[in-house]
Amino acid sequence: MSVNINRTDQKRVVIVGGGLGGLRLANQLKDSNLQVVLIDKNNYHQFPPLIYQVASAGLAPSSISFPFRQIFRKRKNFYFRMAEARAVFPDKKILQTSIGKIDYDYLVFAAGATTNFFGNKNVEEWAIPMRTLSEAMGLRNALLSNLERALTCATEEERQELLNVVIVGGGATGVEIAGAISEMKRYVIPYDYPDMDASHMHIYLLEAGDRLLAGMSQEASEKALKYLREMGVDVQFGKMVTDYRDYHIIIKDGTSIATRTFLWVSGIRAQPITGIEGDKLGRGFRILVDGCNRVPGYDNIFAIGDQCLMTADPAYPKGHPQLAQVAIQQATQLAENLKKLSQGNADLKPFHYNDLGSMATVGRNKAVADLGKVRTQGFMAWMLWLIVHLRSILGVRNKLMVMLSWAWQYFSYNVSIRTIVYATKPKMIRERIKREQTTHLGEDLMQEE
Questions:
Q1: Are residues 82 and 179 in the same domain?
Q2: For the residues of 85-99, what is the DSSP string, one character each?
Q3: Strand pairing of 202-207 and 234-237?
Q4: Is residue 3 part of a domain?
């Protein structure tokens, strides 16, 4: 079965993934003579830097998500299909998806990364990742449900398991969610749960390395550590988690921590795709690309952002950091190259990353920022973080919602989105998804052959 999209005399670019890179690429191609087809398993774009605020009940999910069809509704040469990419057949120029196959002239993988559990099945089964909006909502439900259960559980041992929060991974996400939950403990629990002793809630941040925010300066790492410890977070270094059994985190040094709120933000791996495998993959299962983001051996297949590994840039011989700015800049450059290719010009411009800096927020008035040679912490860094992220959110309505939510929280010390909602799917949708998941890869192609 083929995906029903009208073919025109325009060459077709298929973009897999509507994250920051995929969205920028689609936008940059709006004035080209190319037909653009965007494929994503969700029907909305999500803003990853603020996902942790959804998880800690600080923002509504709709504040950081935006429907693709609304973004591109005035585009005549654009098509969106909600589907998962399953496999690519380069010799036939066909991408197999969960809703059928689609042919392409140029194919771009921009599906980003997923959580890396490093082969640990127990951790994968029980830990709560935080890469997507749905995972963030799952964490929010878990946090709030465990607080409710802690008031009614039968034993002190179970109560402590429910009140202990363990976060594994000391990168920006780990630091930000630890700070957000700490503020939740300080400002929410005493008022929402007056019959609970908030001092019994413990927040642990475990890092296998020797410092937080390894991609930032030493000064930023030390300041973030100071902030978190002042906020009551128990930060521990050299702690490699090896297992999770009987509601206990098992650490390599033989120690353990009891918890039923186990967050895993320790690593990521590129989204896999059948057909691009073996020697075409590098560290973290990232697709190897040349200096123009093209997959070696294929003239018309590209990869950008977290899903690719480019070692051709002399400044980054081991590949670029998996940051939003890398994906956005690669998308911008690739758009220009695709326009050239569509016009018969094979003189492509290689990509060079312009590092605009990094920042992370820890809590109210507490953040760290490395912006080139300028390094700042505290209130100024926090204000910069707010401005940068507010500008990056799509849609005037979403910007206003986030700004008003932040202002309300700042002056009231209170967040209001503390509902526990478990989504359920109608039976017919569950059955359709089940059928799609059992469909053999490339079945349509084999039938035709």
A1: no
A2: EEEEETTTTEEEETT
A3: parallel
A4: no
- pTM for the structure as a whole: 0.90
Which stretches of the chain score pLDDT less than 50?
440-442, 445-449
State the burial class of residue 431 (Cβ atoms within 10 Å of its Cβ: 0-12, 13-18, 19+).
exposed
- 78-94 pLDDT per residue, tens: 999 999 999 999 999 99
If asked whether residues 139 and 213 sit together in one domain, one would say yes
How far is the first Cα of the chain from the last one, in angstroms, to the nearest whole number? 13
Range of the domain at 262: 121-266+357-412
Q: What is the pLDDT of residue 436?
A: 61
DSSP 3-state helix, strand, coil percentages of the chain (rounded to 5)?
40, 25, 40
Query: CA-to-CA distance for 160 and 275, rounded, in angstroms?
Result: 47
What integer pLDDT is reported at residue 420 of this predicted model?
Answer: 78
Whether residue 306 sits in one domain with residue 400: no
The catalytic residue positions are 176
Name the nearest CA neighbour of 309 among 280, 289, 292.
289
pLDDT at 440: 47
Interior angle at CA 132, CA 234 and CA 178, nearest 5: 10
Is 180 a domain residue? yes
